[in-house]
Design brief:
Blueprint: H1 7-14, H2 24-45, H3 48-64, H4 78-89, H5 94-101, H6 105-108, H7 113-119, H8 122-130, H9 143-160, H10 163-177, H11 184-204, H12 208-222, H13 224-258, E1 265-270, E2 287-294, H14 297-310, E3 319-320, E4 333-339, E5 342-350, H15 351-359, H16 369-375, H17 377-387, H18 394-402, E6 405-409, E7 415-419, H19 424-431, H20 433-437, E8 439-444, E9 459-460, E10 472-476, H21 493-523, H22 530-535, H23 537-545, H24 550-558, H25 564-570, H26 582-590, E11 596-599, E12 607-609, E13 621-625, E14 631-635, E15 650-654, E16 662-671, H27 676-686, E17 691-698, E18 703-713, H28 715-725, E19 731-734
Parallel strand pairs: 2-5, 11-15, 12-14
Antiparallel strand pairs: 1-2, 3-4, 4-5, 6-7, 8-9, 8-10, 13-14, 13-15, 16-18, 16-19, 17-18
Helix pairs in contact: 2-3, 2-4, 3-5, 4-5, 4-10, 7-8, 8-9, 9-17, 10-12, 11-12, 11-18, 12-13, 21-24
């Protein structure tokens, strides 16, 4: 634990950079000192077996990292030793210390997973492999994919065992402290990655001290001149404001003494340089506020009462994070109180809370891995979702980790933490995937006795944003399923992943239906029943050779990704009776197969109207199947239709119901000029259609956007209106 580490170790770890040694003897002494401090720690905390593994790890890294030198001139072995010492300082267990020594073994030496598994155990091999970077390919276009794959691998390792997170954070921290000898472009790229990935990760896991240290180092390398200026300015402010800060300290002491709270420790919260990494403005004060540290949580409320009864509290600035901790585990009471006419911020915490806020669970961890996993359970569950989906980019993961959080409650009082701006739909998916998939809305802050069927002001739609502290009861209906608009009605990665997954499943089922209908029509030429055809041994053999299931085959037919005639001819799958009608068979094969996709509902999830050319029902259109199992539809003259390897675009057949009326929204991008709106509305009125609502706004100096809501009309009427508007000289786009 933290208290068990010597002051010299702590001092060694807290500096902004490790001193660069100048001679081999000094390096040798440094290595010996680091090893001895690590050895002493494991002797106190580990078993005899773990002490033996530690000695083996020392031998292995010395042997395999021999003669390897860092850019700074230090032996490579110094790096894993310093990372391991940091792990000791955090109070982690002996196995994590051993694993941290080996964390670069697979990446930078000839050591393999098998070697680690045989000599240390599978746990060690998996931890080290999870922290091993996937090597960049020579193709620069694939480097981003390699980096994302590395992140996915790292997240998966963290989910399996959260202790790998600490190894990775201290690995990066030590590398950041040792970047002076690196080229400028490497310093900047590593710092940007650290700021975008490792800083928010540390914050999300409640490791505020580590997060700030990473951030300050990023500041130093990304903006060196501004960093030095900020340090100098903060030091100057500290000297200038020292008298007033000391006077304020004495006033606070007097307030606490009058209430008999003499055991309260008063600490100044100094402005950290890391706070100014994104700001070019000079700090106005070196003091952010005061931290009042008490022994027991109950005393926190007594101190709050003392401040509020003897000074005026600032309204709406009082927050209780003891009963409701922040999303990263932060606890304490926050308030602002007027002293000498100025609002002063206070953070009131117990000693244990303060340690927890700085170091997370490591402030009082007793060594139980299950305790560690339970503490980080919510975050690990979210990362588990991220690590299992290759579609999700690390930027989305970090967006979740960095976002401000709100706390809302289930009807039973269970707390759910969500990013600020989350909706009812996000809440539903957070509770359970099925609840989100069938969500129609929610009852917010409704009495538990109130029926969900009651018409009430407590009912809200699924896209309604939630507020901090609200109670939410999800309303679901079995026949409700996600559509594409749900992606705009939610903000969390969990929701988006589940919505996209549901859309793909719906699209796959629809494509299979289309493919089956197509196959039925084609086999009809030979009086062949589809189900009997699939049961034939030669058909099943062909599917196996193509690595297809029956469902996948029908899906590919439905999305026109596979030519049926070519498939039948390649595997000689025509019915026997077809051989008796050679002329008919030859004619069938010689008939050019024109792929056609029938659109019976433009709102079907499988139908994706492209944003590049804004097709509408009735347009001559072509389709291209995309990776989301959608038919991406473009106007026939669109110049951005993606090419298909060996297959032509699919012709679109609009087969929408003629009798169905729909209220359309008409959007136009136009040249900004007088009289335009009159000409547009005249076209619509000449078609006998009423405009229910309209609005317009300036897009830029030359262009304006006009939005019109039309009364319910048929799709053919809407198409006629759009066809008359498109050729107008002042109209640039219609959708």
């Amino acid at each position: 634990m933290l208290s068990e580490v010597s002051e010299s170790v702590a001092e060694n770890l807290s500096g902004r950079a490790f001193a660069v040694q100048e001679s081999a003897d000094e390096y040798s002494q440094l290595v010996m000192d680091l090893k001895q401090q690590i050895r002493d720690y494991v002797r106190r905390r580990g078993t005899e077996l773990e002490q033996n593994l530690l000695e083996k790890a020392f031998d292995d890294i010395e042997a395999y990292h021999a003669n390897q030198i860092r850019r700074s001139g230090q032996p490579v072995i110094v790096h894993p030793l310093r990372v391991a010492l940091s792990i000791c300082n955090m109070g982690l267990d002996a196995p994590t210390v051993v694993a941290s020594l080996l964390h670069d073994a697979i990446e930078d030496t000839s050591i393999t997973w098998d070697y680690l598994s045989t000599n240390y155990g599978e746990w060690y091999a998996d931890i080290v492999d999870g922290l091993t970077k996937i090597k960049y390919t020579t193709d620069s276009g694939k480097k981003g994919a390699d980096l994302e794959a590395t992140y996915q691998k790292m997240l998966a390792a963290m989910v399996r065992d959260v202790r790998s997170l600490f190894i990775k954070l201290f690995d990066r921290l030590d590398n950041m402290k040792d970047m002076d000898a690196m080229p400028r472009h490497k310093q900047r790229s590593i710092s940007r990655e650290t700021l975008n990935v490792y800083v928010p990760m540390a914050r999300r896991f409640g490791l505020e001290e580590i997060s700030q240290e990473h951030t300050e180092l990023c500041f130093r390398y990304l903006y060196p001149k501004r960093y030095e200026k900020t340090l100098a300015h903060l030091q100057q402010l500290r000297e200038q404001q020292a008298p007033s800060i000391q006077a304020m300290h004495r006033q606070i002491e007097e307030v606490l003494q009058r209430c008999g709270l003499n055991n309260t420790r008063i600490e100044e919260i100094w402005t950290h340089p890391a706070s100014y990494i994104h700001s070019s403005e000079d700090a106005e004060t070196v003091l952010e506020g005061y931290r009042l540290v008490v022994q027991e949580p109950l005393e926190s409320y007594q101190v709050l009462g003392a401040l509020h009864t003897q000074r005026n509290a600032v309204p709406l600035k009082i927050r209780d994070f003891i009963s409701n901790p922040l999303w990263n585990g932060h606890q304490g009471l926050h308030t602002q109180v007027i002293f000498d006419g100025e609002p002063i911020s206070f953070e009131i915490v117990s000693k244990q809370m303060h340690q927890l806020n700085e170091y997370g669970i490591m402030a009082h961890w007793k060594g139980s891995v299950s305790e560690l996993s339970n503490y980080y359970r919510t975050c690990l569950e979210q990362l588990d979702l991220f690590s299992g989906n290759k579609e999700l980019r690390m930027a989305e993961v970090m967006g979740y980790l960095q976002s401000e959080q709100i706390q809302v409650f289930t009807p039973k009082g269970d707390m759910v933490t969500l990013p600020s701006g989350a909706t009812v739909l996000d809440f539903a998916f957070q509770i359970h995937t099925d609840l989100g998939t069938h969500c129609v809305g929610a009852m917010v802050n409704a009495p538990r006795s109130q029926s969900a069927d009651e018409s009430s002001r407590n009912w809200v739609s699924r896209d309604r944003k939630l507020e901090h502290g609200e109670s939410v009861r999800i309303l679901a209906r079995p026949d409700q399923h996600p559509d594409r608009n749900w992606l705009e009605q939610s903000i969390t990665a969990r929701s988006h992943l589940n919505i996209r997954r549901s859309l793909r499943q719906q699209n796959a089922r629809k494509a299979q239906e289309v493919g089956r209908d197509f196959l039925v029509r084609e086999l009809f030429h030979f009086q062949q029943n589809v189900d009997q055809w699939f049961q034939q041994e030669n058909v099943q053999g062909a599917l196996v050779k193509e690595r297809l299931t029956k469902e996948r085959f029908l899906e590919e037919l439905g999305l026109q990704r596979r030519e049926l005639k070519t498939f039948l001819k390649t595997y000689q799958l025509l019915p026997n009776q077809a051989l008796h009608g050679i002329a008919r068979l030859r004619a069938w094969f010689q008939t050019k197969e024109v792929p056609i996709f029938k659109v019976e509902n433009e709102n079907d999830s499988i139908v994706h109207l492209s944003a590049c050319c804004h097709p509408i029902p009735g347009d001559r259109a072509l389709g291209i199947p995309n990776d989301q199992k959608e038919m991406e539809i473009h106007r026939g003259n669109c110049t951005k239709i993606p090419a298909r390897k060996g297959l032509p675009p699919v012709q679109i057949n609009w087969a929408l119901p003629e009798s169905r009326l729909k209220g359309y929204k008409l959007n136009l991008l136009t040249i900004d000029d007088r009289g335009i709106l009159f000409q547009i509305t005249k076209v619509i009125k000449d078609a006998g259609v009423a405009i229910l609502d309209s609005r317009s706004f300036q897009k830029n100096e030359q262009e304006a956007v006009i939005e019109l809501s039309l009364e319910p009309i048929s799709w053919r009427t809407f198409h006629k209106i759009v066809e008359r508007l498109r050729p107008m000289k002042f109209v640039k786009q219609v959708w």
